[in-house]
Design a protein that fits this description.
The protein is of the alpha/beta class. The chain has seven helices and eleven strands. It folds into two domains: 183 residues, Rossmann fold (3-Layer(aba) Sandwich); 52 residues.
């Protein structure tokens, strides 16, 4: 039986195929702290933490950080970096559909489109877990692809960029019937070797997310067009949703 993409994509290929899309994590952490004030020493969960790009800078700011990811390969890279940089982070290998610690966290972060991997029922379960795991007054920040662009008629895009390891071609196609976006990345190295990967995520509208978040015991308090707090609009690349538990 073929394994789902989210169990195989996060391997040695990931830095080459997705690294060029990543922004400066130190800057992003500063933006996050500006969007959702986090009390000193707060307990922060980074859901889908990967290589610890944000978990480690958050730890250096004095927060008690738990990084949760399903990929042991990504967590190994995160642990190695944390040791090199002297960062204290709790690394947890667990499926986000199962990770629950009742009333344990002040903040949950889901960054770089790490939400929407599954079907609707399981995606709701992820939010339910967050709602249960947040303390009263705690906050959730979801950093997602802008649903309006995909759901409002933009069928897809294709772009090729030059990166340090070669030429990276990225294709995104929107399936309006399922509400899912399929992305394919292919890197052609200077020696002609090609590496590629593909994944698909559920793209939710603002109304969809509002309903799901309320079901999970939280409420949306803001929607931004980027982590720097820019206004959200049809053409924004990102949809950054901030929710709180009452």
């Amino acid at each position: 039986m073929k394994r789902p993409w989210y169990e195989t994509i996060f391997d040695e290929r990931y830095p080459e195929l997705f690294g060029p899309l990543e922004q400066d994590p130190e800057e992003e952490v500063a933006q996050i702290v500006g969007l959702i004030p986090i009390p000193p020493g707060a307990a922060v969960a980074d859901l889908g933490c990967g290589r610890g790009r944000h978990a480690i800078p958050l730890s250096r700011r004095g927060y008690r950080v738990t990084g949760v990811d399903l990929s042991e390969k990504m967590l190994r890279l995160a642990r190695e970096r944390a040791v090199r940089e002297g960062a204290a982070v709790e690394w947890v290998r667990e499926d986000m559909r199962e990770f629950v610690r009742p009333a344990a966290f002040d903040v949950f972060l889901s960054l770089f489109s790490s939400f929407g991997y599954f079907g609707d029922v399981e995606n709701q379960k992820v939010l339910d877990n967050v709602g249960r795991s947040l303390k009263r007054g705690g906050a959730l920040l979801l950093d997602l692809r802008n649903a309006r662009k995909g759901l409002a008629g933009e069928d897809g895009m294709e772009t090729t960029v030059t990166v340090p390891t070669g030429r990276l071609c990225m294709r995104v196609r929107m399936d309006h019937a399922t509400g899912r976006a399929r992305a394919e990345h292919e890197l052609v190295r200077p020696d002609g070797i090609r590496i590629s990967s593909a994944f698909d995520v559920r793209i939710y509208s603002e109304a969809d997310l509002d309903r799901m978040i309320v079901t999970a015991g939280m409420r949306v308090v803001a929607v931004h067009g980027s982590l720097d707090g820019a206004p959200f609009h049809v053409g924004a690349e990102r949809m950054v949703v901030v929710a709180k538990k009452g």
